[in-house]
């Protein structure tokens, strides 16, 4: 029987000495690097919306739709949209 082993590396320092360190809020296994002490998930989820898409969504508010309307059009949650509006440098 052939066994394949996968070696994960720390994203910060490149070290291979990782140990398990609980689970994230979404249930993924978290690890901690013994070399640098950085903690995190091995294969973190990428952002659903890119920066260009995010900018397009934020600019849609100047067309004066409701917040729920923007959420329906772009298929995004209201808490996420509210968080983006708070961080946005533009005045509404």
SSE diagram, text form:
Blueprint: E1 18-23, E2 29-33, E3 39-41, H1 51-59, H2 67-74, H3 78-87
Antiparallel strand pairs: 1-2, 2-3
Primary descriptors:
single chain; 92 residues; alpha+beta; 2 domains; three-stranded antiparallel sheet; 3 helices; 3 strands; 15% strand; elongated
Instruction: Name the structural class.
Output: alpha+beta
Reading side by side through the largest sheet, how are the strands ordered? Answer: 1-2-3
The mean pLDDT is 88
Largest sheet: 3 strands, antiparallel
Number of strands: 3
Strand content: 15-25%
> Helix tally?
3
Q: C-alpha Rg, in Å?
A: 20 Å
How far apart the termini lie comes to: 63 Å
Helix content: 25-40%
Shape: elongated
Which blocks of ≥5 consecutive residues have pLDDT under 50? none
Q: How many domain units?
A: 2
Order of helices and strands: EEEHHH
Describe this structure in words.
The radius of gyration is 20 Å and the shape is elongated. It folds into two domains: 7-44, no CATH class; 51-87. The termini are far apart. The model has no long low-confidence stretch (mean pLDDT 88). The protein has helices at residues 51-59, 67-74, 78-87; strands at residues 18-23, 29-33, 39-41. Strands 1-2-3 form a three-stranded antiparallel sheet, with no helix packed on it. The protein has 92 residues and is an alpha+beta fold. 29% of the residues lie in helices and 15% in strands.
């Amino acid at each position: 029987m052939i066994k394949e082993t996968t070696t994960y590396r720390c994203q910060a320092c490149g070290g291979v000495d990782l140990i398990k360190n609980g689970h994230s809020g979404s249930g993924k296994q978290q690890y901690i690097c013994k070399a640098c002490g950085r903690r995190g998930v091995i294969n973190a989820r990428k952002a659903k919306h890119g920066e260009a898409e995010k900018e397009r969504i934020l600019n849609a508010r100047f067309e004066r739709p409701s917040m729920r309307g923007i959420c329906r059009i772009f298929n995004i949650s209201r808490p996420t949209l509210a968080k983006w509006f708070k961080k946005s440098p533009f005045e509404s």
